[in-house]
């Protein structure tokens, strides 16, 4: 981007680009063990809600915020199996 003989400050000003944005380097996040555990429990117990999953984590000794569990739950929800209808069960008309 920056040519020979042109400073970073000048070229960023010319392009109307913040120097912080130019220098920004994204860091990779380490996988979060709690989020992996939430995913496991959500797939193992598809009928449980996020509050029940949170309670199971707390009983297991994990220190986790319920809002964090809810955020992960919203991400996983479309991938979870629905309850569905059991055979022989009739709905009220």
Q: Could you give the topology of this structure?
A:
Blueprint: H1 8-15, H2 19-23, H3 33-44, H4 50-59, H5 66-76
Helix pairs in contact: 3-4, 3-5, 4-5
Low-confidence stretches: none
Helical content stands at: 40-55%
What general outline do the C-alpha atoms trace?
Answer: elongated
Q: What is the SS-derived class? A: mainly alpha
SS elements, strand count: 0
Order of helices and strands: HHHHH
User: Into which percentage range does the β-strand content fall?
Assistant: under 5%
Looking at this protein, list some descriptive labels.
single chain; 93 residues; mainly alpha; 5 helices; 49% helix
What does this protein structure show overall?
- By secondary structure, the chain is mainly α.
- 49% of the residues lie in helices and 0% in strands.
- The protein has helices at 8-15, 19-23, 33-44, 50-59, 66-76.
- It is elongated and about 80 Å long.
- The model has no long low-confidence stretch (mean pLDDT 82).
What is the gist of this entry?
This protein has 93 residues and is mainly α. It has helices spanning 8-15, 19-23, 33-44, 50-59, 66-76.
